[in-house]
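Example 3.
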Amino acid sequence: MRPAPFDYEAPESIGGVLDLLEAAPEETSLLAGGQSLLPLLGMRWAQPRLVIDLNRVQGLDGIEDSGGGRVRIGAMLRQRRLETEPLVRDRLPLLREAARHIAHVPIRTRGTVGGSVAHADPAAELPAAISAFGSRLLLRSSSGERTLATGDFFLGSLMTAIEPGEVLVAIELDAPPPGTGWAFVELARTHGAFALVGAAALLGVGADGRIGHARLALAGVGGTPFVPGWLDEAVLGEAPGETLFREVGDRVRSEVEPFHDIHAPAQYRSRLAGVLTARALETAAGRANGATAR
Amino acid sequence: MAALEDGTITGVKGDLIGDMGAAMHTVGYGPLWLTSVMLTNVYEIPNARVRARAVVTNKTPLGSYRGWGQPQANFVVERTVDRLADELGMDRAELRRRNFIPPERLPRKSLHHTLDSGDYRACLDRVLELLAERRWRERQSELREQGRHVGIGLSFYTENSALGPSRMINEGGVQQGGYDIARVRVEPGGDVTLYTGLCEMGQGITSALAQVCGDHLGVHPESINVVHGDSSQVPYTGYGTGASRGASVGGAAVMKASRAAREKVLRIAGHMLEADPLDLETEDGRIFVRGAPSTSVTMADVGRAAYIRAVELPEGEDPGIEMVAAFDPPQFAWPYGANVAVVEVDVETGQVSFLDYLYVHDCGTIVNPMIVEGQLQGGVAQGIGAALLESLPYDEEGQPLFATFMDYLLPTAVELPRLTMEHQHTPSPHIPGGMKGVGEAGAIGSPAAVVAAIEDALAPYDARITETPVTPAAIVEMVAEGERAKV
């Protein structure tokens, strides 16, 4: 459990980070909360030459209403703050619920939103949760900034579109309209263990009692968050209900291609994806329009 | 397992294979041996034959773990008894009652060991009373009607504790003793120092030994300094801490040494008070003639006489108060108990949660109830880990797939039930003080009870669970099979 030797830099500005990255874009790891990188270093599964510590960089840990119904979250925002920030509670309650499933409180006080998203563990909560929103990831390099949608950002298990020399600096989420129901449900074998499967749902019900908008994203069922593109077609204009949600769940179950490991076979994860999809949608529907959560 | 139609068990046959791994490790095939001789549990089974084979493989070596082969034996026996009850159409508790060795026939030789004392039936009946008080059977049927899957599981265990008779374990191949030695010193200032070869590892043994010493010496436990863990200071111990022997074997040695020290204290105090030592009484470090507490001497007075002013000693009394005593138990001591688990199974996800957990047990004289409860809580946690989570999988190339705690899952406080616990007290006839061990007890009976409860919850699917851990995936598979069979 001792890392291989590496150089360590702790710049205090994003400019400093970019300069270091430009000089040595390969074999460099960025250290955020250390939730994943430190175990990887300890097990020597990661052996970077240089570790750039982002913890002293100013201005990366904010959260703000960026106007136009958007909320901007700095990459270094600690996961714990997703549970405590009024802005998250009021505008992005799904994110708050997802955060509660991440490991344990002490880990969440270290772990960051950007770290989890950039690490892109297939079982992680936040990549799926942000995929359920319309979200854009802001990447910066010495040559400028670019923005990617979640679908373009997550490429595979532990793989993202971040290029050598780039840093994820912020995530911008479209806050759903007021009255949107939300749910993040997950099953892990023990509290704080990696999720077997997690499901994030957002659901809006119109005055006519019919589904006006819906978003769904799953964790643990493949290399990247699973976001069914057919969801609108399947549920918009329908009345929310168990039968409908089970149909959606069954379709999810038949489409996902999860992996097998010692904690659960792939077939079980597929099944779980269907069950948790239906449950997430049902819970979200129950919370729509200010209805009390069940 | 063979039985008459009335439920009398007539015989048990076992065939065990123990995976020793690639090399004989610290304990060799000891746990496998203990599994083999525990296959009659606390039942009166006239015929038993067990074959145990130790197999060498290319896996990690076998080591000691809480229960030392007994959880495996208990799981097999208790689940087989459940199956037998089902076959006979008998109540599972009633079948156990019918086959318990009755109290009047104890001590009684079992397959290998001699079970010492106890009233198994009283213990089982009490746990069932608790179950009835909480109306779990009724609530189970109500919840079943609501489509929820609630199950109740029962198991009964005994535990091999107080290791151990030195001759017996030497004959069994253990190259060390099973005794314990304690030294008690009353200091010149009247404080007491207790030296033990046992080790405090958080389980509280120093508190328990101080209590035993205080009781028998007549001082408050807080005035006793317990020295442990430094082999240049403490007496030799035959075996050290482990094998559920601290309170019973170490405690008995402390008791003997403390009593000897007390005799000397009273001789000196009697001389000072001009009274017969047999007429003296002690309370909170003061010594006085029974019925006349106003005239007393303190432990400090006695200490001064013993070390500093020999002129105050009785004629012919050696200076100093420092007594050593050894205890080697003539037999093991056998605590026992009943586990009842009440679980709910989410049949869609295979997730198991606990609704209740009842635990009634008897470990003889209890020195410190809080420590006993902590030991049992921890043991049950490990048993639940064994039942639901823990396994050592390898891939086809022989690579272990459990290298970290990300892979090898342990239960956390969130998954564990709050135990409702009751103590019964049948002292061991072999141990001065009557203390039986308790350190491994919780881990022994819990896997069978938890698995029986899951199986009961899955009764609508006719599930039969014969192995652990019972994973969510395995549960979902059993549910699916049950549904297929119904069609």
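The first helix of chain A runs from residue 14 to 23. Chain A is about 35% helix and 25% strand.
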